[in-house]
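New here. Your pick:
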Amino acid sequence: MEWWQTLAGVAAALLLAWLGLLVALLAAKPDGARLTEALRLLPDLLRLLRRLAADRDLPRGVRVRLGLLLAYLALPFDLIPDFVPVLGYADDVIIVVAVLRSVVRRAGPEAVRRHWPGTDDGFAALSRLTGLGR
């Protein structure tokens, strides 16, 4: 087998994996209103996530998810490159919202409320964003 055939096979496999992840991201995409709420809450959300990561009483899975999210955001490459209009940054936002929902649900409403640094209205918006009140 020629080297170029191997290279073409690897490129095709990477392209298929990338397309699969893109479809998964688009399927998990929250609606626009929730993304807008998340952007308004960003400073309080960052403080909440830092406090949740430092709380040793929470399950280790919460800290692992937060660590993996930080690692993903620190990597120089994305699932969809940032130069692609709209979708370039949308993958980051979708992943952050998905991890946020997972972390908040796993930590529980009591822990989230205890660590929430913002206002009651902000906590209500966080609850809507993450489905915490359901």
Remarks:
- The helical segments are 3-28, 32-40, 42-54, 60-74, 87-107, 109-115, 120-130.
